[in-house]
Write a structure and sequence with these properties.
The complex is a heterodimer of chains A (314) and B (355). Chain A has 13 helices and two strands; from the N terminus they run αααααβαβααααααα. Chain A is mainly α and 314 residues long. The longest helix of chain B has 30 residues. The chains are: A mainly alpha (314), B mainly alpha (355).
Chain lengths: 314, 355
């Protein structure tokens, strides 16, 4: 057993772990911004699918990967705006609005992919991002190849975590956002526009989820498939709870999940366990459920989460 | 906004229950017509094929009814759960669990013929209920969010099923990852000769009636509504929240499991990867269109059966991607939600009080 583990925990494993964590970090931070403002964004799975498809298609036809990333981000922003319309302006059930958004966006992603690409005999592919080795830093033994020889979007994810913490805790905008998620009545009395803050949070949320989708299709993989997201969006929601609505802890949770995911991939490949590969695929989801069971009892969600704010009903 | 005010309604008029889903569906179809145009097809052509092909011949009408059966079950499952505010997004996995139970029982050689149908039905319902009880228990005991757990469990169940179908449960005769066929005697009786109209369709209609009775005429149904509407008031009135949530989850899971039983015993006679093309998720849209009323689930399920069946024909005839059905589904949920706001609020136009 220890030989297997020592074989597994090599540099390549940790580098893969950072790669796998990147879309989770984007998605989790996206969900976090929405929830801190008081809106549960259950559209995440659908938004990631649609953004991934939009990004991939744009990259495919324009040849520019960064245009693809932009397309993915804009798609996410548009979806976030739609969720804002449903949950903020119309004050509808956040649960059902989110599920509706996921169904709509995933349907649109299938529809447009089929419309644009048809049913080709071979999977349309692009030339994905190449890893970008940071000069000097990537030569550091052990940590160098893990942290500093990654895709540009990975570096972006590494920067987004402290940026999110800074914005959330050290800027007026972040303070307003958190206030609106804890006590919108008080924030409104203090002159904060609750609707505007929630909309802005949802736009940021959608943009980050779009980045997650872009990463999956243009860096981690080089194609779009219908199963490219396969539940990762839902995992991000669990990770927000796991990280107690804090950017650093949520990112740590994402790394932990990525560790389990990378591990199950390697265990699949190794000859030590003769179990069906699907059981390994199942493992991260089971552990996420278990993790949530352990954490949720003491979880303190933003106080105004799930409650629509209506000015008249004060 | 100046000039427009939302005034809470006391009680929505009854005709709103019919008007709103119709309006929502019409709005969704109008929005999706843009997609049809993008696909380069004629809107009237596409929609007429979509809707009429499922109803044009007697054979097609039966096929539509057959397709509606699992949708009725999942729609009912979501209805019961959502009424208790148990966000059961796991109907898909519960369906597969019920299907696996039915396929396993139906293939057992040692069981007497008369016992097969009741055992498959009972076993499938129990399997579905068990799968729904896990997230429900996590919710009541550990305050875990039910949306995430029911969803993640779908993946767990699916992978578990595929692990079985690829391995110990693989049909040695077929070479594909599917289970061995159930016994001939276990297949649901056909109600209409030379068609696939099987007993499961009748069971679905029966389930709708029973669900209505449960929700409207029993104490549990009342408690489910109370817990969903106002948990604090319900607790104050002495209703045990945890028990009611678990009961609602069990009924919900059982209904979803029965959808799987019908598909195995009536149509496919085995379990395979593509058993459910998202019936569990369509059930959510159906439940919302039905305004969480079991009787309303029937026409909503038939509507989506028509759309899903017709989408294939429309795709062949006009070249519009078959996934239009999925977009219509999502759009209908969104438009229905927006329309629901009109039941809770009236729009009032204010004239400014002073100029």
């Amino acid at each position: 057993m220890s030989e297997i583990l020592s074989q597994v925990f090599q540099v390549g494993f940790f580098a893969a772990m950072v790669r796998i964590a990147t879309p989770l970090v984007f998605g989790t931070l996206g969900e976090l911004f929405a929830e801190r403002a008081g809106v549960l964004n259950l559209g995440i799975e659908g938004i990631m699918m649609l953004a991934a498809m939009a990004g991939f298609s744009t990259a495919f036809f324009t040849g520019s990967l960064w245009l693809g990333v932009l397309a993915a981000v804009l798609t996410g922003v548009a979806a976030g705006a739609l969720l804002g319309l449903l949950t903020v302006s119309l004050g509808l059930s956040q649960h059902v609005s989110g599920i509706g958004l996921t169904l709509l966006c995933s349907g649109l992603s299938f529809f447009f992919y089929r419309l644009i690409f048809g049913q080709p005999s071979s999977l349309p592919k692009i030339a994905p991002f190449e890893p970008l080795a940071l000069p000097g830093l990537s030569d550091i033994p052990f940590l160098g190849p893990i942290l500093f020889n990654q895709f540009a979007l990975v570096y972006l994810a590494m920067a987004v975590v402290p940026a999110a913490a800074f914005v959330l805790y050290r800027t007026p905008w972040g303070l307003n956002l958190r206030a609106v998620g804890e006590n919108p009545q008080a924030a409104y009395s203090a002159g904060v526009s609750v609707a505007a803050a929630r909309y802005q949070a949802l736009l940021v949320s959608g943009a980050l989820m779009g980045l997650a989708g872009a990463f999956l299709c243009m860096a981690q993989y080089n194609a779009y498939t219908f199963g490219v997201i396969s539940g990762r969006g839902w995992v991000c929601i669990a990770l927000v709870v796991f990280g107690q609505w804090n950017p650093w802890k949520s990112a740590a949770g994402a790394l932990l999940f990525a560790c389990i995911d990378a591990l199950q991939l390697r265990l699949q490949a190794s000859s030590a366990f003769h179990l069906p590969y699907q059981l390994f695929l199942m493992l991260p989801f089971v552990l996420t459920i278990v993790g949530m069971a352990l954490v949720s009892r003491n979880a303190r969600a933003p106080a105004a989460l799930l409650k629509p704010f209506r000015k008249e009903a004060r | 906004m100046t000039g427009i005010r939302l005034e809470p309604r006391v009680q929505p008029p009854w005709w709103l229950n019919l008007l709103l889903p119709t309006a929502a569906v019409a709005a969704a179809l109008a929005l999706c017509s843009g997609l049809v145009l993008l696909a380069g097809a004629d809107v009237l052509d596409a929609y007429s094929t979509l809707f009429l092909s499922s109803l044009s011949t007697a054979f097609n009408r039966v096929e539509t009814a057959v397709k509606a059966a699992p949708l009725v079950f999942t729609g009912l499952a979501v209805t019961v759960a959502f009424r208790a505010k148990f966000w059961n997004i796991g109907a898909e996995g519960q369906l597969l669990a019920g299907a696996m139970a039915a396929a396993f029982i139906g293939a057992c050689e040692g069981l007497p013929v008369w016992s097969l149908a009741p055992l498959m039905i009972g076993g499938g319902a129990l399997a579905g209920a068990a799968c729904a009880l896990v997230p429900a228990a996590l919710k009541t005991r550990c305050k875990v969010d039910d949306v995430v757990t029911t969803l993640l469990l779908n993946f767990v169940i699916y992978y578990g099923m595929m692990a079985l179908l690829d391995g110990p449960w693989k049909d040695p005769l077929s070479g594909y990852p599917d289970s061995p066929d159930i016994r001939m005697e276990a297949e649901f009786p056909i109600l209409l000769k030379s068609t696939r109209l099987h007993m499961g369709v009748l069971l679905a209609a029966l389930a709708a009636a029973l669900a209505w009775l449960l929700l409207r005429r029993t104490t549990l149904g009342f408690e489910i509504d109370a817990v969903g509407e106002n948990p604090n008031a319900a607790r104050y009135a002495g209703i045990r929240l945890a028990g009611v949530t678990l009961a609602a989850a069990a009924v919900s899971g059982a209904l979803a499991g029965l959808a799987g039983v019908g598909e195995v015993a009536g149509i496919h006679f085995q379990v395979m990867a593509g058993l459910s093309p998202g019936y569990g998720y369509t059930g959510i849209v159906i439940a919302m269109l039905a305004r969480l009323n079991p009787i309303g689930v029937l026409p909503a399920a038939v509507f989506f059966a028509i759309v899903i069946t017709g989408a294939e024909a429309m795709s062949r005839a006009t070249g519009v991607p078959v996934f239009l059905a999925d977009v219509i589904q999502g759009a209908a949920l969104v438009t229905m939600l927006a329309a629901l706001m009109l039941t809770q609020y009236r729009i009032r136009w204010d004239r400014p009080a002073h100029e």
